[in-house]
Amino acid sequence: VKVQFRQPVKLSAIKILGGPEAESAPMAVKIFQAKPNIGFDETADEEATQELLLTEENVRGGEPMQLRYVKFQSVQSLQLFFGENCGGDQT
């Protein structure tokens, strides 16, 4: 998932909401900053700016997940890679 901002922003947290099916909720997300053309293959080799492990409760409740504020001071684009889910089939 690619998120672009019109001007640089400072991010301190991110909120990820899932659907009603608990097993399809994301479990792991890699966050890449300023890599707008990163592909699925590169996500395995590149070091993420930050990785988050989520629980079903985090996703269902939409709890903000704290980010390393120092790493996200001047963000113009984010790329989110959802590599694992909470038990559903991967497509």
Q: What does this molecule look like?
A:
With 91 residues, the protein is mainly beta. It contains two helices and six strands. The chain has a four-stranded antiparallel β-sheet, with no helix packed on it.
Name the strands of the widest sheet in spatial order: 1-6-3-4
Which blocks of ≥5 consecutive residues have pLDDT under 50? none
| Strand tally | 6
Report the sheet with the most strands, covering strand number, pairing sense and barrel closure: 4 strands, antiparallel
Oligomeric state: single chain
By secondary-structure content and strand pairing, the structural class works out as mainly beta
Q: Outline, from the CA principal axes? A: globular
Tally of alpha and pi helices: 2
